[in-house]
Amino acid sequence: MSRNVTILGAGLVGSLLAIILRKKGHEVKLYERRPDMRKANMSAGKSINLAMSARGWKALELAGLKSDMETLAIPMYGRYLHQPDGQTAFQPYSKNNEAIYSVSRGELNRKLMTLAEQSGVTIHFDHKCTGVDVPNNVLTFGTPQGEVTEKADLLFGADGAFSALRNSYTHMDRVNCDHFYLEYGYKELSIPPGPNGEWLLEKNALHIWPRGKYMMIALPNTDGTFTCTMFMPFEGEVAFDKLNTEADVNKLFDEQFADAKPLMPTLMEDFFTNPTSSLITTHISAWRYKDKSALIGDAAHAIVPFYGQGMNAGFEDCTVLSGLIDDYGADWSAILQEYERKRKPNGDAVASLALMNFVEMRDKVADPVFLERKKIEKELGKRYPKEFISVYEMVSFSHIPYNTAIQCTQAQDRLLGQVMSEGNFFENIEQGAFCDRLDNWMSAYHKEVQQLDFDNEAG
C-alpha cells in the first residue's frame, strides 16, 4: 500500500530517497529551505568535494543514475603527499588498484533533483521548516509568502546536521542527543586549470599537505580545477584567528605550502571571501517515532569529512531502507524499527572512524613507521586474501558494516604490532621461520574477527 511521504531536505540524501520511494509507488513531496540551486547563483565556499566509494555507487545504481555520474567522476587511486620541503610521495588506497571518486556535490545534487522531479516528486523550494509537532506529524514552514503548516502522513528528516525534525525529537521524552564540534574549522580554496585547461597537479589522486596540527587537501574536478580545503584550528599558534592579513596568509603559504601557492592565483580572494565553517559530529537516539517519522543521512549521523563517508553513509541508509521496504511491504512500524536497529550502530561507528582518520591524514601520513605499516597491510592482503582486508578497504571498497570495520581496528593493531616488532617485514618474509609465525598470527587474527558480522547489510 502506497503512502504519502514528506521529506525535509532536497540535498543529496533527500533527493535520492525521494527517487527510491517514488520508484516503489509512493507519492513524495520534498521541502527545501534554499532556493532551487539549478536556477540560483549559489555561492562557493562551503562545499567539500565528495569522495564517492562503493556504498555511494550502489545507491546511485538503485536510482538509475550511476552511469550518468560515472562520466563526471574522477578516480583517485591514492593519496599524493606534499611535504614542507617539497618532497612528494604517493600512497595507493588499495592492493587491487581500486579508487575512490571525486564528484562535484553540486552537479550530483542537481541531477538527483531533476531525476526526482522527472519521476513525479514535487519539490517545494524556499520552505524553511521551523518546527515539527512530532506526535501529530504537523510541520511549520517559513516561506517568502509567510508561515504555512502542512500535515505529513509519513515523514523523513533528511535536512542535515541541524535538522528541524531532529531538533523537534530532542524536545521529546527519552531522547538522547549530543553534538560535538571539533576545535577545527575549514575554508575552501581553489587551484584553477593550466593555460590549456590541464590539471596542474596529478589528477588521479587526493592531494594532502599534512602539517601535524593542520592540513590542506585538494580534489580534482572535471573542468581542470582542484577544490582545496584548509583544515585548521580556530584558535592557537597556527590557526584561523592568526591569519588576519594578506601578509599572515603569505607567510604561512610561503613556509608550509610553497609548492601549492604559485598554483593559487586567487588565494587571497578565496581566503578572505569564503567563510570559515565548523565541523560537527552528532548522535541521537531514537532515530524514529513509531511508524510516522525517521531521520536519515546527516540528520541522523552528521560526521566530519575525513573518511569521505558522509554522503556514502547517507546513501547506504537509503539502500538499506529500500531493502527493508521490499522485505516488510506496508508494515512501516517494522520497517523503521529494523532500519534503526541496522543503521544506528553503523552511524556511530562511521562517526568514530571519521575522527580517527582525521588524525591519520593530518599527522600520520608523513610518519615513516605509519607508511611502512600501510605497505605491510597491502602485502598481507595479497598473501592472505581470504583472511585479511584492511579497515580502510573495508570502509571504502566494500559493503561490510561500518560497525564491523571499526571492531577490526584493535585486532589489526595487534596483528601489525606483532609483525612489525620482528624488524624489516620485507626481509623477514623470505625466511621460513618467520612465515610460520606469520601463518600462526594470521590464523589467530582470522579466528578472532570471524566472530564479527561481515554480512553485507545493504543487500
Describe the structure in brief.
Helix content is 40%, strand content 23%. The protein is an alpha/beta fold.
Helix count equals: 15
Major sheet size, sense and barrel closure:
7 strands, mixed
Overall helicity? 25-40%
* CATH fold-level topology of the domain at 4-41 and 106-179 and 280-359: FAD/NAD(P)-binding domain
Alpha carbon gap, first and last residue: 23 Å
Strand order of the largest sheet: 6-5-14-15-16-13-17
Q: Would you identify the CATH H-level superfamily of the domain at 4-41 and 106-179 and 280-359? A: FAD/NAD(P)-binding domain
Give a count of the beta strands, DSSP E runs of length 2 or more: 19
Strand content range: 15-25%
Contiguous runs where pLDDT drops below 50 for at least 5 residues: none
Mean pLDDT, as a whole number? 92
By helix and strand content, what is the structural category?
Answer: alpha/beta
Task: Kindly describe this structure.
With 459 residues, this protein is of the alpha/beta class. Among the domains are: 4-41 and 106-179 and 280-359, FAD/NAD(P)-binding domain; 367-449, no CATH class. It is 40% helix and 23% strand. The strands form four sheets. A seven-stranded mixed β-sheet has the order 6-5-14-15-16-13-17. A six-stranded mixed β-sheet has the order 8-2-1-12-19-18. The mean pLDDT is 92.
